[in-house]
Amino acid sequence: MKRVFCPKCDNQVSFDESKYPEGKTLAFVCPRCGAQFKVKLGVKARRTDKGVEEVKEPDFSCGYISVIENVFAYKQELPLTLGDNVIGRRNKDTDGVDVPIVTSDPSMGRKHCVIHVKKAPDGGFVYTLRDFPSLTGTFLGNTLLGKKERVRVEDEAIVTIGATTFILHAADGVKE
After folding, report:
1. 109 beta partners
2. Cα gap 168→43, rounded to integer Å
3. Are strands 45-48 and 36-40 parallel, antiparallel or unpaired?
4. Which end of the chain is more exposed for a tag (fewer CB within 10 A), N or C?
5. Residue 68 · residue 80 · CB < 8 Å
6. 17 phi/psi in degrees, rounded to 5
């Protein structure tokens, strides 16, 4: 199942993309607001002030997070970049979130936590985690991070923000 977002109200619309050939343009009517919009299969695009522009495939060269599916969110793999990666709940009006998680989790903040990625002298990457701060806190494993506390995290670290859990995947796939 593929999910697309209504450009007017940001509602999710799901459809089975395997029934259609790549390159086909599909027309949708949003069930929430009634807006009509089109999606071309196989091409990722987004609307900007200057029109519609094509979006490149995600770059996982600095590592990524895997959101574990639960009642609030579906499984997602979101790339990280060098520097601060602000992680939070996706909202069309929220600026400053680098890794937006599509979820209906009310206990996850729009800006919940930060994973900082930097190059190590040996050519690998170093990952550090901190709370943004958020109202419900950030958990590494079963441990709640303190205010202003920064911790180094390794490959396959389990992080919980609100009722949503994700796993950090280091770029080289080796524990540091």
Report:
1. none
2. 27
3. unpaired
4. N
5. no
6. -70, -15
* Mean pLDDT across the chain: 86
> What is the DSSP secondary structure assignment for residue 107, as one 8-state letter?
T
Distance in angstroms (rounded) separating the CA atoms of residues 4 and 110:
20
The helix/strand/coil state of 144 is strand
Alpha-carbon distance 9 to 11, whole Å? Answer: 6
The edge-to-edge listing of strands for the beta sheet with 113-119 is 99-101, 83-89, 113-119, 125-131, 151-153
Rg (CA), the chain: 18
Residue 158, beta-bridge partner list: 167
The conformation of residue 98, written as its DSSP 8-state character, comes to S
Q: In this predicted structure, what is the pLDDT of residue 160? A: 96
Mean pLDDT across 39-45: 69
Query: What residues pair up with 114 in beta bridges, in sequence order?
Result: 86, 130
Pairing of strands 12-15, 2-5: antiparallel
Residue 92 or residue 168, greater confidence? 168
Distance from C-alpha of 78 to C-alpha of 91, rounded to nearest angstrom? 16
103 within 8 A of 135, measured Cβ to Cβ: no
